[in-house]
Amino acid sequence: MTLPLPDLSLALLHHLVVFALVAVLYAQYLLLGGQPDMARLRTVAQLDKAYAGLAAGILIIGFARAAHGAKGWDFYADNPVFWAKIAVFGVIGLLSAVPTVRFLRWQKQAGLPDAQSWRGTRRWILAELLLLPVLPLLAILMARGIGL
Questions:
Q1: Quick check: is 148 in a domain?
Q2: Does residue 137 fall inside a structural domain?
Q3: Would you say residue 41 lies in a domain?
Q4: SS3 for the chain, per residue?
C-alpha cells in the first residue's frame, strides 16, 4: 500500500495548526481571567497576532487539502456540510474581531482597560471557544459522506 504523503502531510499540518490555535485562544481566555496589567495586555495582544496567523494558516492549509488532497475539490465543492464548516469558522473569525480591535485600542491608549471591558473581552473569547467543537463535528459528518 502506498501512502499519499502530500495528503497525509497536509492533514497532519492542518491538525497541528488547529491545535495550536485552540491553545492560543485558551491562553488568551486564561490571561483575561486575571486583573488587567501591562504585561497581560502585551501578552494577550501578542497571542492575538499569533491567533490571526494560525487562523490564516488553517484556511490556507485547509483549502490546499480540499483542492489537492486525496478526495479532491469535487468532494467538498458541492457538500453543504463543508460550507457549513467554513461558515462556522467564519463566524468564529468575526467574533474574534471584537477582541482584536480592543487589544489594538488598549495598546494605543495610555492606561489599562477597565475591568468590565477586560471581562467582556474574555466573554467574546469564550464564545469562540464554545463554537470550536462544532468544527470537528462537521468534519466527522463530512468524512462520513453526510451532506453529499
A1: no
A2: yes
A3: yes
A4: CCCCHHHHHHHHHHHHHHHHHHHHHHHHHHHCCCCCCHHHHHHHHHHHHHHHHHHHHHHHHHHHHHHHCCCCHHHHHCCHHHHHHHHHHHHHHHHHHHHHHHHHHHHHCCCCCCHHHHHHHHHHHHHHHHHCCHHHHHHHHHHCCCCC
Task: Give pairs for 66-69: CB < 8 Å, separation 24+.
Answer: 68/6, 68/7, 68/10, 69/6, 69/7, 69/10, 69/11
Total count of domains within the chain:
1
> What are 51-104's pLDDT values in tens digits?
999 999 999 999 999 998 888 899 899 999 999 999 999 999 999 999 999 999
Is residue 15 assigned to a domain?
yes
| Domain membership of residue 66 as a residue range | 5-143
Indicate yes or no: pTM above 0.85.
yes
